Amino acid sequence: MFDSRKYRSIAHFDLDSFFVSVERLINSNLIGLPVLIGGSSGRGVVASCSYEARKFGIHSAMPIKLARRLCKEAIVVRGNMELYSKYSRLVSDIIADSAPIYEKASIDEHYLDISGMDRFFGSFKWAQKLRQRIIKESGLPISFGLSINKTVAKIATGESKPNGELYIPFNRVESFLSPLSIRKIPMIGEQTFQRLYSKGISDIKSLRSSSPEMIEHILGKNGLIIWKKANGIDNRPVRSYYEQKSISSERTFEEDSSDVKKMHNIIIGMVGHLMFQLRKQQKLSGVISIKIRYSNFETYNMQQSIPYTSLDHIVIKTATELFDKLYQHGRLIRLIGVRIGQLIQGKQQLNLFDDIPEHIELYQAMDTIRLRFGKNSISRAVSIKTSEERTIIEKKKKRTK
Q1: In this predicted model, what pLDDT tens digit does every residue of 220-251 receive, in sequence order?
Q2: Does the model's pTM come out above 0.85?
Q3: Where in the chain is the domain with CATH 3.40.1170.60?
Q4: Is the separation of the CB atoms in 372 and 302 below 8 Å?
Q5: Secondary structure of residue 260 in the 3-state scheme
Q6: CATH number of the domain at 18-82, please?
Q7: In this structure, what is the dihedral angle of CA atoms 103, 105, 109, 115, given to the nearest 10 degrees?
């Protein structure tokens, strides 16, 4: 057992085939069968699949059509993000009740810093008990890896799956990592793998043995980070989930207004810009909040949990409904604001089982334009300022000159 005063104890908990496992809780007939989670349209993709389906070569992000050709017996279930978000929060609550510091890294994985537990319980024994509690209270299978940092713990989790646990103390880190494929290292996708493989680097031992300068030359600025991960070096802290920053947008009016339609349109514009920021950072939001400040400076807020998402149309619906509940009809509004919180890592592909591929294509097209020409280069028509508003702003500018 390593000295906890010198080395950290970082645990990585990851729910096994999360979406599939939740569906099996609801419908036990799916247990043991090859299950695909995704949209049912011909253009849908696999958001998640069971281990039984993976044996046929099926994986996430694969077109549903191709997956069904690989496994004709596969059962396709249309995803339910609201249900998955509910179980994700349940697991987070269990972890929050036990762990001194935890970070929700995505909808189905958490990092825990349990350094110092060796003095009282033993870190591995403590993590085992937490895992059993999660299984008992949520009904979901979960795996964990425990080691000296995030990278090694995450790789250990992958090696322990499905429904397993693995402890890698500091004196076993090198021997554990060496024989593994470089694909096991976080940050190494298909393109990065091919670049390294073309140079004769296929396992972590060969990557670790290469000079950091060479790897940086091959991979660019991320090369040194990847080389350090191969050497078991990762000093990133576990950041408390409750410290995750929210992002917000506010607008103070030149003239107070009680025009509800105008407020809806402004909220739609704000949401569009906030969701663009989320997608750019590959994050999802689990909470939406609306803020109203009236002409007498009285300020009110209302928030609501939502299925984790980064798609405009989902958040717009909740945001406008919140505004309607919060707004005191007829009162003049001085300021309106939108805030999105509970940010976690996750790509918009999680929402592809929305079964409306046109939405995804629209957002991708809009984001491409914004990235190339600036965030204000494109907006929904309803969020654009009216000529009257532009006139008021121009007059204000002239007065302040």
Answers
A1: 989 999 999 999 999 999 988 656 678 999 99
A2: no
A3: 18-82
A4: no
A5: helix
A6: 3.40.1170.60
A7: -30
